[in-house]
Amino acid sequence: MSTGLVRELSPTPVSLEELNVRARLVTRVCRKYLVPAQVLSGILAVPGERLGVLTIGGRDSFRYSSTYFDTPELGSFRAHRQGRRRRYKARVRTYVDTGTRLFEVKLKGNRGLTDKVRIGHEGPSHVLPRASRAFLDSTLEGYGLVAPPVLAPSAVTDYRRSTLVSPSGTERLTLDTELVGRRDGREVRMRPDLVLLEVKTRGGFTPTERRLHAHGFREVTFSKYAATLVSLVPQLSGNRWIRASSACLERSVLRARPCFT
Fold it and tell me: Which InterPro entries did the record assign (predicted)?
């Protein structure tokens, strides 16, 4: 399956192995931009330069579902809201098209770098088996953080993603659409005319970002997990995400089925 966004760029298909060779960027700086879908191809398309697009089994657009785990007091969310220099997120990521599940720990440290580590996850996405829990504990201990005694599923985010890589491999771009955040039987959706573009790199501003700036687009403060919680839990505050969330998320609606299945 190919999205219209990707098709307009006429990118070169690349395998996951080639993508990781060219721009693995597991430890990286990530910056996010909200861009109208109708102008995105004009910004990304560069004469004489073809982006690579992750392609697996003929697909260049994939469905993701992330189940986040947090303490009963939402300690991970609160650390993120407070901008603590050392913090983490724990989640089970499901690659919906294949059914593959990974348990991931995203670590935020000095100089704003993000480090992501992960292992295979067995069982339902809303349950932490012993192996995943032990992996979290050892990862946080090695990072100088104390693992919380109790974790439970706190939110789910579903979305569609295409991944692009520059010919030089110095930047990796993800294009997220159809975002839905869910918690406690309610959901919030991203506007269909917007794309959440994330630039992953090891250095300063990339060529893509310079073109974004030239078109008037600036980095936004946005977290799928945090935006979902702030939108669906009335007593939570999240000033740092309000502007971006208000610009891209539509009103929440009631759902009949539970979030964690």
Answer: VTC_domain (IPR018966)
